[in-house]
Amino acid sequence: MQPLYQTLMADPKFHERILDFDRDRAAACCAAGCPDCGGTLHVANYRRKPRGWLIELGDEHDLRFSFCCAVDGCRDRATPPSLRFLGRKVYLATIVTLIAAMRDGLTERRLEKLAAAVGVDRRTVARWRTWWLATFTATPFWRARSAAFMPPVDARALPASLLDRFAGDGGEQLVAFLSFLDPITGGASMQAF
Ligand SMILES: [Zn+2]
């Protein structure tokens, strides 16, 4: 059986779906106005080159939606949450989550394939796991929100243990999981990673 990251990353419909979610977040962010002065926001997207694609998609998939305040003397940035970008990570959030969640399923053969397809090597995977286990669990966001899970989410088995808490098939679980992370993927918090 194909691992989930392979199925999802090669599915254009999945990418269109999460892009739509990001567009909705961008529209809501723009409608809310400047977080600093309430002024009108103008589009000021970042052109990123996220890694991890297994298929060719349009340039719009590389855009990190963002806005800039139109008011002179403010010019504050407003960046909505995203299901595609996890802080400043160069890999797509889908990959960073699903590969770190594989734990024992990440065989030598799969690692070799990953390295060949998207340049993810053992060190990168180890770094992501450390990020989930140490950096993520130390965020005020996780400290506040993890208390709501009963029974508690096993912090040593993140991100798999949290993914498991959401309903639906693998794709739906991932979308719900990444949506849950909204508070740490947008605004000023994206600078923190
Ligand atoms: Zn402003």
Structure description:
Helices cover about 45% and strands about 5% of the residues. The protein has about 190 residues and is mainly α. The strands form 2 sheets. Strands 1-4-5 form a 3-stranded antiparallel sheet, with helices on one face. It has a two-stranded antiparallel ribbon with strand order 2-3. Helix 3 crosses helix 5. The longest helix has 21 residues, at about 10-30. Zinc ion binds near residues 36, 37, 39, 74 and 76.
Outline the secondary-structure elements:
Elements: H1 4-9, H2 12-32, E1 41-43, E2 46-47, E3 63-64, E4 67-69, E5 77-78, H3 93-100, H4 108-118, H5 122-135, H6 140-145, H7 160-163, H8 170-180, H9 182-185
Antiparallel strand pairs: 1-4, 2-3, 4-5
The structure holds zinc ion.
Give me a quick take on this structure.
The chain is mainly α and 193 residues long. The protein has helices spanning 4-9, 12-32, 93-100, 108-118, 122-135, 140-145, 160-163, 170-180, 182-185; strands at residues 41-43, 46-47, 63-64, 67-69, 77-78.
Sheet of most strands: 3 strands, antiparallel
Structural class: mainly alpha
Q: Which word captures the global form?
A: globular
Q: Tell me the distance between the termini.
A: 34 Å
Share of residues in helices: 40-55%
Oligomer: single chain
Mean pLDDT: 91
Unique bound compounds: zinc ion
Question: What key phrases describe this protein's structure?
Answer:
193 residues; mainly alpha; three-stranded antiparallel beta sheet; two-stranded antiparallel ribbon; 6% strand; globular; binds zinc ion
